[in-house]
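Researcher: Structure prediction, please.
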Amino acid sequence: MGAQLAQALRAAGNEVVVVESEAGRAGVLAAQGLHVVTGNACVATTLETAGALRADVLVACTGSDEENLVISVLAKRHLEVPRVVARVNDDANRWLFEDSWGVDAAVSQASALVALIEEATGSGRTVRLAELGAVGLVLVGVNVTAGSAAIGQSPAELGLSERDLVAAVVRRGRPMPVDDALRFGVGDRVLVLTDPAGEGRVHVAFYPDGAAAPAGLSSHGEALS
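Model: Predicted structure follows.
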């Protein structure tokens, strides 16, 4: 995953440095044209050598949640990296991936995959897509189906809390202006920013009958991977 992410970020024009603990693997990545530093990313001096002190973003994406948390707290608290994104391998550990550990955004492979499947099949009505730990918010996606009470309503008529914000509405693949003239329709994909406890509120606003309750999933310059 780290190699694929690094290649994608580099292809997008970012300066990327990969930290790899295994010398053999580091050689393979270097042969692929990546800038690689061999060492343990859980050690602050290794991250400094890789350029963490001037990085805009650090992505902790090892296969160990413990290592990703250590890397995140080092990056944020000791090296003052502005943005830290961490991979969650086991959803049972997701509650740890928040600001106190230096994580700005946590991404779960399992939850992200389920969310994508539900997005593609329309099987999920309300899905937590991402968590923004640094600001204490989550991004919830809502599929508006024929059974939604929101059909014909504007965002202001949903009865959402002041802590909930309709950030975007996608209709037939195109973003729509979120204003008083907008009326929700079948097939709309609605993205709502809310607090961690707000997923239920968002679901009830669109589906007050309680059917198809939220899935409860917890899933987003220079980059250091």
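Model: The longest helix spans residues 65-78.
Researcher: Thanks, that helps.
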